[in-house]
Amino acid sequence: MTTNPIIAFKHVSKSFEDNGQLILRDINFELEAGKFYTLLGASGSGKSTILNIIAGLTDATTGDIYLDNERINDVPINQRDVHTVFQNYALLPHKNVFDNIAFPLKIRKVDKAQIEKRVLEALKMVRLTGFENRRIQKLSGGQRQRVAIARAIVNQPKVVLLDEPLSALDLKLRTEMQYELRALQQKLGITFVFVTHDQEEALAMSDWIFIINDGEIVQSGTPVDIYDEPINRFVANFIGESNIVSGIMIDDYLVEFNGKRFESVDGGMRKNEPVEVVIRPEDLRLTLPDEGKLIVKVQTQLFRGVHYEIIAVDDLGQEWMIHSTRRAIVGEVIGLDFESEDIHIMRLNETEEEFDARIEEYVDEEIVEAGLINAIEEENIKD
């Protein structure tokens, strides 16, 4: 649990009033102040609904929403200390850059001198100094996005909400803005809640990611945790590329798949339990057939710029995707090598709560076991 969370959702659900269809299902989370959070999911998953509930643009059907320990279910939009950056930026076309950024300050009747000072500071932060009098229509897409961000931070809100603000930009500019947004958030120390369907964007920018699917939080964690330890097939496929095969967890640290047994770093499951095995394409290395843990035949190969994407098939008909800087030859038989750390084990149909409980119990058992071993060794030394 987070101490004094800046935002908290407690059993929040949302359904359509006309047909009762659930959009959000019992959402619970706590957000720590000053971090960059991302709600990641496909279109229609419910991520933007969560953002809109925080902003006050839509009401929760059930549950409670807290901002800085204050219940805000019934607090009007203009009284919530949050600001939203929309996908279309929602800038005022008849006003110049200065007036667009100053707009929320004028609504709050901030002193004129203070408005000018804060607007110029915001412009400097987003690298638009000198653009005060520029018309909105004269700005590029990236510049308009910076104006929208400046307007969001000029009020110095507790939370900035960003609803897919980079989706309209071209690839190069979107990448540049990812760096700028992350650097700006760290400089300001304001909590950012970012909505996207772009997995690479989420991994690059976030302190913490929530994977949303069908109105539920499927998994949450740091980008490294989410990528290296996907909880199920959906997350493994949604975050990056994955090779997923059926296996049997023979024992702790020993898994069987493709008719062979391999050492792994996972444990805490029942002996001989059916599992799913994940190996990322970049963790498979090309070798000679007699040097590989798997033997496959190359089917196709595409050059992706930074690597070759190779599709190969083993004797059992299992398809493998490999990302390699080495080029292969279509039709040749090659070996695939990998380390035990590259094997990730997923229990079938496991929830995040079950996963956390299992890992916690497993770690506790390991600590106890390690303590017993140390005690025995100490006794042996005494003897």
Structure notes:
The protein is of the alpha+beta class. The chain has 3 domains: 7-228, Rossmann fold (3-Layer(aba) Sandwich), CATH 3.40.50; 233-347, no CATH class; 351-383. It has helices at residues 47-55, 97-107, 112-125, 141-153, 171-188, 199-205, 223-228, 233-238, 352-382; strands at residues 7-15, 22-31, 36-40, 62-67, 70-71, 82-85, 159-163, 191-196, 208-213, 216-221, 243-251, 254-257, 260-263, 273-279, 285-287, 294-303, 308-314, 319-324, 333-337, 344-347. Strands 6-7-8-3-9-10 form a 6-stranded mixed sheet, with helices on both faces. Helix 2 packs across helix 3 and helix 2 packs parallel to helix 4 (141-153). The radius of gyration is 25 Å and the shape is globular. The two termini are 46 Å apart. The relative contact order is 0.10.
Largest sheet: 6 strands, mixed
Shape: globular
First-residue to last-residue Cα separation: 46 Å
Supply the helix-strand structural class. Answer: alpha+beta
Strand order of the largest sheet: 6-7-8-3-9-10
**Averaged pLDDT, please?**
88
SSE order: EEEHEEEHHHEHEHEEHHEEEEEEEEEEH
Question: What proportion strand?
Answer: 25-35%
Tell me the number of helical segments per DSSP (H or I, 4 or more residues long): 9
Flag low-confidence runs. 365-377, 379-383
The CATH first-level class of the largest domain comes to Alpha Beta
Rounded to an integer, what's the Rg over CA atoms?
25 Å
Named at the architecture level, the CATH assignment of the largest domain is 3-Layer(aba) Sandwich
Total count of domains:
3
Total number of beta strands? 20
The CATH homologous superfamily of the largest domain is called P-loop containing nucleotide triphosphate hydrolases
Q: What is the helix fraction of residues, given as a range?
A: 25-40%
